[in-house]
Amino acid sequence: MESQAPVPLDRSCGATPELTEFLLSLGATAEQIAAASERSGLIGLGADLVFTSADGLTACDLAAKSGASVEEVLGIWEALGVGVPGPDEPMFSAADVSLIQTLSSVELFTDAESNELLHVIGSALSRVADAAISFYVQTVESDMADSGADTLQLAQKGSMAARTALAMGAGLGAVFTHLMRDGVERQRRAQAHVSDRALFRVAVGFVDLVGFTPLSHRMGTRELSTFIGQFENRAFRLASDHGGRIVKHIGDEVMFVAIDPVAGCELALALMAEFADEGIQPRGGLAFGDAVARQGDYYGQVVNLASRLADLAIPGEVLADDNVRVAAAAAPLVFEGAGRRQLKGFEEPVLVYSLLPGPVPAPSADT
């Protein structure tokens, strides 16, 4: 299949009367419109105005209002990954004052630990922002360009998208509360039988889509983007349904964890069944044990083992280690012996099993 050439957006357009009127209604000045026109940015000016703080506070203002020093204020934004051109740049709001007051008064961690936590927060939110922007550009904006939308329509839709994004962001606190509650419960279960607080006892799995690379070479840009999005969405749904969590996607491979090894087995098999399709045949690896949990990711021998088992499996197969077999022995699953395998990075051969779904129960005489 040939790649479809994208329809370019004409960002060098002049300010039509209708577009100028719309931008003025958002609070744009004649100088801003002229500057945006000069840099071919009139379509995006509507969104820029939404993201511009009406309060116009500087880092110095935040320091004065929060009780923190200017250096502390700038350090917090730097740790979060937010660029601040200078302490006198008017780019902040009253909500930022409250945030600085909270962050500068936290006494739970050392400075280094606080910075690391802020790095994690900033990185996660930056990924959310990048994903939202890409999603909008590749769907709504692209479809509008294909349909011949004019610059006013593009500017209006972009401004609406920016307002929607900010409204969603303002409501993320409620989502974070639920995720924190679930995260605390996972942590308690995963650390119930470990002695080191850096360790989580989890089933770690990898599922790799064999055949995806040659298939992707035949896909157009939009078709490939759609496939990747569906892959990630379906994996996320299955993980949620089976009590697991997707840790990350690595190209055409997904890494997941589950506190319950039986849930890990069921999720691995569900992912295999979900993505078996013409031209694609998944394979997977699963291991159970103690992993180092850090910044939302997992490290250590159990992770390496699961990854090696996925690489070793043939298409259509899930390989599991003996810890998985023992921990899931009471479940209606089948573990067929696959011998001892010498794996890269492991001194001794590893006892390996092929994981299969259990037999379907026979219907009762009453049904």
Summed up, what is this model?
It is built from 14 helices and 8 strands. It has 367 residues and is an alpha+beta fold.
Give structural notes.
With 367 residues, this protein is an alpha+beta fold. 53% of the residues lie in helices and 17% in strands. The protein has 14 helices and eight strands. It has helices at residues 17-25, 30-38, 42-51, 59-66, 70-80, 94-104, 111-146, 151-170, 172-190, 212-217, 221-241, 261-275, 301-312, 322-327; strands spanning 199-210, 244-250, 253-258, 281-294, 297-299, 318-321, 333-341, 350-357. Strands 1, 2, 3, 4, 5, 6, 7 and 8 form an eight-stranded mixed β-sheet that branches. A hairpin with an 8-residue loop joins strand 7 and strand 8. Helix 3 (42-51) runs parallel beside helix 8, helix 4 crosses helix 5 and helix 7 packs antiparallel against helix 8 (151-170). The longest helix has 36 residues, at 111-146. The chain is flat and about 75 Å long. It starts with 16 loop residues before the first helix and ends in a 10-residue tail after the last strand.
Strand content: 15-25%
Integer-rounded radius of gyration: 26 Å
How would you classify the helix and strand content by structural class? alpha+beta
Major β-sheet profile: 8 strands, mixed
Number of DSSP strand runs: 8
Provide the low-confidence segments as ranges: 1-12
Quick check: average pLDDT? 90
